[in-house]
Design a protein that fits this description.
The protein is mainly α. It has one domain. Helices cover 62% and strands 4% of the residues. It is built from 14 helices and 3 strands. The protein starts with 38 loop residues before the first helix and ends with a helix.
Amino acid sequence: MESTARESAPALSPATQSNQAAQPNQSGQSNPAQALINWDLAASAAARLAPAGPVLDGKAIGDAVDSLRRLADASVPHVHEITGLEAARDLRDSSVLVVDRASWAKANTQSFAVMLKPAMQKMLDTRRGNLSPAAAQVSGAITGSQLGAVLAFLSSKVLGQYDPFAALAENSTAPAAGRLLLVAPNIISVERELNVAPEDFRLWVCLHEQTHRVQFAAAPWLRHHMLEQIDELSGHLLGNVDSLMERASAAARSLKDRSASGNTPGRGAILDLLQDPEEKAAISHLTAVMSLLEGHANVVMDAVDASIVPSVKTIRQRFNDRGKDRGVIEKFIRSLLGLDAKMRQYSDGARFVRAVVDVAGMEGFNKVWDSVDHLPTEPEIHDAKLWLDRMGL
């Protein structure tokens, strides 16, 4: 099998968090809508604030990067065998990058810029007479710094991420089909924390992330559809800035009250207060899609046995138990950012996929990639029979 394509990039140093290779391109500020968020400042703030990664010597760094690249390639045939998706046979149109935390944060500022560009342009147009260039610059700097702090926190948590929007960023050289980012310092940190075999853990992670590449290859319409949905949702949220600010303040007060009373914020504790009926419908659809994507990847991840990942049972057990040891502050931040809701997407989506496969087999399940109309709704994610009946399976 041919090696998957990747952008030219020497090894990145998890020890120093260097920002020198496999570096996503600068987003710049040429688009006037970008004045509302200083993306470059967000990326630099994230790089500055991100916790230091594990300390490794030069040889260990090179070995880890080579290992991740090799295992990313090795995982593709397994994804093909498990999913039965022919799209897994050839992923040369997308790329694999092994990155550090700063590079991951930079990549995400580019993706955010792509996803929010239409809504921010509309917002800028409606407020053009009330927003001076100086005010826009100050606002962009504040928002960029805040986003950078969030990305700094997340940059130490993410093991890998498939970015289907990379090619749409300004001045991007990413392949049209997107890129897979494997965050080397985080993978190394977790495998050490769990005390598991590095090669086994890295392959296990790559199985999940490569599945996302295959999903978008199998459903080439999915990227455009998600962009449309994100544009619609962000347009609602940003369409009325004054209303948004009022609701955000109410959400923050509610979150503070729940924490003071000892109650952990529930699913979307802050998001629930940021929704009118149209927003709820848009979020419901995106939640269903993300649950499908994450759940499917988890099913693939869990489908391997000891013949592929020798210590898979130990990895699963220790990885699942890992979240129980999080401190109070981290739990609060995760709730605020909706990360706990994301974890529920993994389990909800996996239950949906398994329920469908049990009835219709993997071939029947794969109808989900045929068209937008075949995507499950949020009620269907929680009751697979609804989707099976709608599909006539």
